[in-house]
Amino acid sequence: MSSTYSLGSTDAEHRRLIQLASHEEHCVLDACRRAGITEGSIALDLGCGPLGALAALAHVVGERGVVIGVDASEAALQKARSLLSIPHVRLVHADVHDIELEPADLAYSRLMLLHQADPSRTVRHIFELLKPGGVFIAHEASDLPNHAPSSEPHVPAMTRVWELVIGAARARGANPTFARNGRTFLEDAGFRIESHRAYAVHYPAATGYDIPRIALQSLRPVIAKHELASEDEIARLDRELEEAKQRADVQWVASPLMFEWIARKPY
Question: What letter would DSSP give residue 202?
Fold first, then answer.
């Protein structure tokens, strides 16, 4: 990923990303099935981080296929190497814009385009990484506050932390609008859109409240640099999320509103 990624590469941040990935494998498997990705395919996981969709894609393409995970953080890739021991998964330390690989059948991204300064440039490069007829699957979160992570009962801190995530991305130079403007970005790059939908992932309460708590701590350097929130507010948000995690009446906890875009490179 580019340097606009605002949450760093700490052990806690890796834990947050692994939690996200572990609860979203079914979304990857379902999207690949609907996109027609089969055994023997070459699949890219762009911005894979410490786990990403690597395990799910390895299952989809099977031992006759290849999965290539790409990330700009060597620390994240080292964590991925410690978690996965799959012969047909290869990891590449690079910015997604700089890689030149054998043309792939599938390119996948999750929460990667959210952090790009120029999503148009990124999507155009992804187009070039695919074979004619290749598929791009993007699972990206909405940047709107009313689409923030949520729960029942409502916890205002979850909305505020999401505002800080998006604010930090913008402060670092990112344009986090791909999720809801995917049609324009994809069609301008030459893709043909085959499917799009919105969904949310539901988590166990402890996990669902822990994810924004970790994100809040990961954001602290960027929050301080750009004066996005005070230390008192950060402490209050952390307390609110911890108190929510201890409640006995939690009905559900959900991710931000996610948008799935499945698009194909014409033959």
Answer: E
**Residue 132: is the preceding peptide bond cis (ω within 30°)?**
no
Structure tokens at 177: 């609008």
**Residue 15, domain CATH:** 3.40.50.150
Residues 67, 55: Cα–Cα separation, whole Å:
9
Backbone angles phi and psi of 31, in degrees to 5: -65, -40
Q: What 3-state class would DSSP assign to 267?
A: coil
Task: Give the number of domains in the chain.
Answer: 1
Per-residue pLDDT tens listing for the chain (267 residues): 444 565 566 777 777 767 777 788 999 999 999 999 999 999 999 999 888 899 999 999 999 999 999 999 898 899 889 888 899 999 999 999 999 999 999 999 999 999 999 999 999 999 999 999 999 999 999 999 999 999 999 999 999 999 999 999 999 999 999 999 999 999 999 999 999 999 999 999 989 999 899 899 999 999 999 999 999 999 999 999 999 999 999 999 999 999 999 999 999
The C-alpha atoms of residue 148 and residue 264 are separated, in whole angstroms, by 29
Short-list 80, 36, 88, CA closest to 62: 88
Residue 211, domain member (yes or no) = no
Domain membership of residue 29 (yes or no) is yes
The whole-model pTM stands at: 0.93
The token duo for 161 is 């932390």
Which candidate, 178, 197, 187, 161, places its Cα nearest to that of 16?
A: 161
